[in-house]
Write a structure and sequence with these properties.
Function: Adenine glycosylase active on G-A mispairs. MutY also corrects error-prone DNA synthesis past GO lesions which are due to the oxidatively damaged form of guanine: 7,8-dihydro-8-oxoguanine (8-oxo-dGTP).
Domain HhH-GPD: 43-194
Protein name: Adenine DNA glycosylase
Low-confidence stretches: none
CATH topology of the largest domain: Endonuclease III, domain 1
Order of helices and strands: HHHHHHHHHHHHEEEEEHEEEEH
Number of helices: 14
InterPro entries: A/G_AdeGlyc_MutY, DNA_glycosylase, HhH-GPD_domain, HhH_base_excis_C, HhH_motif, MIG/MutY, MutY_C, NUDIX_hydrolase-like_dom_sf
CATH class of the largest domain: Mainly Alpha
Radius of gyration: 25 Å
Shape: elongated
Largest sheet: 5 strands, mixed
CATH architecture of the largest domain: Orthogonal Bundle
Number of domains: 2
Structural class: alpha+beta
Strand content: 5-15%
Distance between the termini: 71 Å
Cofactor: [4Fe-4S] cluster
């Protein structure tokens, strides 16, 4: 028992010492304001720091307080979020800001249990905010933490199983420095992100290389263990990019649940296979948007664009339709960049260079 406690204590002290000498200078580490910590953690879910940092800066500049974010239009929040993906995070971010501003008078809950009640806040985010802002001894467990613990302690329980989630949470809670929980949590996340990386970790200069089971048993590439998810579905997306003689086009807002909810896209035709121009023209000639309209059809992208999401791969074509008129109210092509769109659509808009 004593040996176990001693090992855990040495691990914690070694980790926080490493952190004090190697931590990156990041803006959310200069504050314990719950709004900024919460915002940074939501942005960094499924996102690396180098990608998330410009978004964090943009959000705190445009919405310096939770009240400012709460008053924003959802479309503006989604537009600012554009390119980060997993757009449910942005919608939950906005919903939580409105709840905190109105129901909680701008004050975030000061403990893990109540933070969990906020929309879009899970165990990891609640633990991060509770420890960093309120010094609660609540251990964080994210992808970086799974990797560090599984490698050092040689744990092969799948991290995406209910058993693994419980096992790693209990271990992290044992390890956390009870006096300095915020520092420990940030240290272990930083260590996983910059030292114990998924590929090519810096084992030769690692302060834990003597005791790391994965390193000493040549299992670095095997850990952590993850149960393979179901094979992603393959879908064929065909976007209709209308260009009328009066320089207008059509964008439609995605309704309901599913990917890209509340974002805008060009009219979409989903097919069960890849189609050439002649076949596709016949396929769409009875579409409502093309009734009694003369049009020229051309394919913009010679090669199919494969857009990979976690659960599906979208094989995408953008079809340009030059028409004499639109059958619905359109938008000026000059205004197209004002709309929040998925990154797939955004990349096309920039490439096509609408005037």
């Amino acid at each position: 028992m004593f040996a176990r406690l001693n090992e855990l204590m040495i691990f914690s002290k070694t980790l926080t010492h490493w952190y004090s000498n190697n931590k990156r200078n990041l803006p959310w580490r200069e504050t314990n304001n719950p709004y900024y910590i919460w915002l940074s953690e939501i942005i960094l879910q499924q996102t690396q720091v180098k990608q998330g940092l410009p978004y964090y800066d943009a959000f705190v500049t445009k919405y310096p307080t939770v009240f400012d974010l709460a008053k924003a239009n959802e479309s503006d929040v989604l537009k600012l979020w554009q390119g980060l993906g997993y757009y449910s995070r942005a919608r939950n971010l906005h919903a939580t800001a409105k709840h905190v501003a109105k129901a909680l008078k701008g004050k975030f809950p000061n403990n893990h249990k109540d933070l969990l009640k906020l929309k879009g806040v899970g165990d990891y985010t609640a633990s991060a905010v509770a420890s960093i802002c309120f010094n609660e001894v609540a251990a964080v467990v994210d992808g970086n933490v799974y990797r560090v613990l599984s490698r050092y302690f040689g744990i092969d329980t799948p991290i995406n199983s209910s058993k693994g989630a419980k096992e790693f949470k209990l271990l992290a809670q044992e390890l956390i420095d009870k006096q300095y929980p915020a520092e420990f949590n940030q240290a272990i996340m930083e260590f996983g992100a910059t030292q114990c990386k998924p590929k090519n970790p810096y084992c030769h200069i690692c302060p834990f290389n003597q005791g790391c089971i994965a390193l000493n048993t040549n299992r670095i590439s095997e850990l952590p263990v993850k149960i393979k998810s179901a094979k992603a579905k393959k879908k064929h997306f065909n976007f209709l990019v209308f260009i009328s003689e009066d320089e207008k086009t059509i964008l439609q807002k995605r309704e309901g649940k599913g990917i890209w909810q509340s974002l805008y896209q060009f009219p979409l035709i989903e097919t069960d296979k890849n189609m050439d121009a002649e076949s596709f023209k016949k396929h769409i000639e009875n579409e409502d948007l093309l009734k009694d309209v003369s049009f020229d059809l051309s394919l913009y992208n010679k090669d199919v664009i494969v857009h990979k999401l976690s659960h599906q791969h979208l094989y995408t074509k953008f079809w340009i339709l030059n028409v004499n008129r639109l059958t619905v109210e359109g938008i000026s092509t000059r205004d197209i960049r004002n709309y929040a769109v998925p990154i797939l659509i955004g990349n096309f808009i920039e490439s096509f260079n609408f005037q």
